[in-house]
Amino acid sequence: MADEAPFQFLHYEVLQYIYKSGGHGETDNGRNIAKLENMGFRVGHGLMERLTKDTARFKDELDIMKFVCKDFWTCVFKKQIDNLRTNHQGIYVLQDNKFRLLSLLSAGKQYLEQAPKYLAFTCGLVRGGLSNLGVKSIVTAEVSVMPACKFQIMIQKM
Fold this sequence. Notes:
alpha+beta, single chain, 4 helices
């Protein structure tokens, strides 16, 4: 657990740096979230490279998603995803009932509007990891009750 706190502090400081160096308008907020997601993409891509170097090839999309939920998520957040759902048509929903990057915020409704900036890096992280495995995707996150969140992954067929 000792390496969990530095990651959370680093994530928080990166958020602060990007939001202080960027503007405060609506378009600047979108630009800041895009920066965070791109940072996450690069980290996820590199991390997946390291995690899968000694792993056998995955047989299908579902195996890849199981790997993301178990090994990839455990490497980053020290726990597995709580729930994985799919419609078997390219849409997956990963649910984390106690998402570490949101658990520092209050469980009240007043922080729900701040949640997207805390989730953008992780969306990029997942998208980058999947990209490394040859899966093009769109990853979005939604929070209805803090600190639980759902990540929706839409696989884009080539």
